[in-house]
Amino acid sequence: MVSDPEPPVLVVQGLSTLLTMDRSLPPVPLVDRFDLTVKPGERWAIVGESGSGKSITARSIMGLIDPPLSFSADRIEVDGVDLTHAGRDAWREVRGTRIAMILQDPLTALSPVFTIGNQLVETIRRGAVTALDARIRALELMRDVGLSEPERRMAAYPHQLSGGMRQRVAIALALASRPRVLIADEPTTALDVTVQAQILRLLVGLSQDLRTAIIMITHDIGILPGFADRIAVMYAGRVMEAGPVSDVLRAPQHPYTRALLRARPGREPAAPRRRLPIIGGAPPDLLQPRRGCPFAARCTLALPVCSDVEPLTVAVGQIRVACHLAGLPSEEVR
Ligand code: SF4
């Protein structure tokens, strides 16, 4: 008998996040019909330039959107809990228990006036465990995230730790309630390359050992090999291409993804490490009315139809791609 496939821990369908500047004007979509299905232990990367909508997408999935922004979705389900029409209380309950987030600057998650141990124990005690059990769990978490000498570190204040150690503590705090989904918004951007590699290895280990699904928001396409299982490439609030990382890196279907990969760091050995690929032109002004493909003004392959008609998302093998050229033989479109 074939057992059921593991159910996803996160389902997002048709998520749109709108900016309402003035009630007399139509709202501006900053995220447009975003879809994502994540399985336990899976590692996703959401990639794109600054302003592509990836961080707003992450905040929307966490239910952390305030006016003048608002969001809606056909379906949002976290670890089996349907949040599609949920109010703030339901979101608050799910946040930090089933889904958690770490940010680029770990100090935003840490109080400067309490020790690391105090903050971890207090977070764990919100789950109504005894002080002793919470301390044991705090030490266990510190070991899980690779903090050496956990007993000694418990007494340290955030400013006494290095940036890499603070990020490990922030990850431990996020994991305190054993969330099934961890969203990591540029968690390694402020760290040097060696510490960045350590944190990425740590996240890979957590996804494998604890089956925590991880969604990494990043500018840095250089981190994808060895980290992500699947990738979604965002541009102007839309997913341009999504699928298994190996397929997308081997045979990218969208001209924007190809441009990102052509410009990726490390292609020229002598070039300094760059996190942001350089592509000619600039992203569209999202405040202006849209028409056609959002990448048309920068696309070297644009056809006349591209400026008028927005491409639908279609499947090419296991990749989903939003481009009028999708599925054409590569020699015809390069
Ligand atoms: Fe380029 Fe047209 Fe494809 Fe947009 S739809 S990426 S403009 S070819």
Description:
The structure is a single chain. With 334 residues, this protein is α/β, with parallel strands linked by helices. It has helices at 54-61, 88-94, 116-125, 131-144, 150-154, 163-175, 193-209, 245-250, 255-262, 330-333; strands at residues 10-19, 28-38, 43-47, 69-72, 75-78, 81-82, 99-102, 181-185, 213-218, 230-235, 238-244, 313-316, 319-322. A hairpin with a 2-residue loop joins strand 10 (230-235) and strand 11. Helix 3 (116-125) packs across helix 4 (131-144) and helix 4 crosses helix 6 (163-175). The longest helix has 17 residues, at 193-209. The protein is globular. The chain starts with 9 loop residues before the first strand and ends with a helix. Bound molecules: iron/sulfur cluster. Iron/sulfur cluster binds next to loops. Iron/sulfur cluster (SF4) is lined by residues 255, 293, 295-296, 299, 301-303, 306, 311, 323-325.
